[in-house]
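[Meeting: bench + compute handoff]

Bench side (C.D.) handed over the final construct sequence. Compute side (W.E.) agreed to return the predicted structure before the next meeting so the bench team could plan truncations. Sequence as handed over:
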Amino acid sequence: MLSFRSFIYLAIFHVAIGISLLAGYFSDSMHAWMYQAPIQWMYGGDYINLRMDGLDKQGNYKATPFDYDTPPEVPVVTLYKDAVADTFASYPPAPMDMAVLFYQLHCQGVGKLALMSPLYWEQNPDVFVKDAVMHELASYKTLAVGRALTLSAREEALPENWKSLIIKPGQIAGSTSQLPPANKLVGETPQLPIQKWSVPSVIENDALFREMGAGGKSSPLFVRWGEAVLPTLPLMAALDVLNLKLEDIHVHLGGQLRLGDKKNIPIDTAGRIRLRPDTNGIPISLADIITIDGLPRNSLTMEKTAVSKLLKKAACTLVEEPSTIATGPSKEALLSAQTIRNLLSGITEQPPLLFPQSSQLTQWILLIDILIIAIFALHFSGPIRKTLLGISIAIPILAAIILFLHDYEWFPFIPATIACLFVAACSFFVKPAIVPHPAGAVSPSENAEPDEQEENAPEMPMEEPEFHEPEEIPIPHRSQEEKEDQGNKTKR
């Protein structure tokens, strides 16, 4: 029959098995994260770009090598003070100056335009001037006009024309709480009827927009207006280039941004994407497009100039009119162009690298063996117990390293490690059965309970008693006088 100590060991073994099975259900994502660095280390020299896809349905760890395609061009035309002074007669540009610019860009092959401009002047243009500007804007295949926003203590209602921009909740996965909030438009209402092309651009008093570009990340592609989630100018410009609608996007914040069936782009919880360093916006001087008299520079050879070739092959062109006096292209415009290029940049995938999971037999053998070692350690005390427990905890990690380097398999070592840690925690409550003690010290069995003393007491052989002859006891002899005295005392 099993002793009480054996029952304790058996119970710890079964509970440790259960804990390891339970940990196995929740540790897959942790394993996927922990194997990223070793895979990058092994294949970093062979593949410059490696996307970690995690575990597939078969339990294989999947990593996909890929190469970036050459990103499409997105030129940036900025109407800052010096550039305008060299080309137009006034600063900021008059409405007819803007009409001339839009006309020249269209003549040089620009078909898709993104505009960051307040489109507001001190004197309200007359109807004929407005019609001239709107005629040129209407000649583009696609147009997106960015409006700046802010977060104010006095909340305004969502503009009526932006209700069509609301992304449906079914297209969004993950929490939207980290998206930048806004509730008010900045500046005066544009004096041109551009409502149908209007989209959010930047939030002026938001930290995520002030820090755009930091850490190689874009500005947020989405903003919150109350409960509504709206796209920003770079995303709308990219959708126009890809001929997609808002209904074609699906975003998993902290996961992937899917643009139709054409693009899958990693995105963080704040709606930002990572920017490649080789995708900067390309600034173009206003003087390279038009001259002081409003005519194209070298009109006879316009098709052969480098700027004209760039504008013609560009995916879209960004025109910026700063709301304040500037001396060059703004950071917002250049990063918006860079964001558009990254959204449009394609990748060429290579065959994936598959790392199969170690077999179930291997996992069970290792788990049972290390638990036997760990529970066997409970029988001892001191350095022996600590050494055996340390070995049992280290074995799953060493097995994972060996299997990965030798067989290119990944071993789920976390459940086995947690099971050994549980046994190690039990060692604080289970007394050792064997305790080494120095000479002269009191044995633990002397301080043990009576039942435990009987259990731990060694069995001694019974010795038969030796037979000895009884010794004769001498009888003392008394004298005659002593007898007479004893008789007299008796008579009295």
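W.E. noted at the follow-up: Residues 43 and 50 are 8 Å apart (CA to CA). C.D. will use this when planning the next construct.
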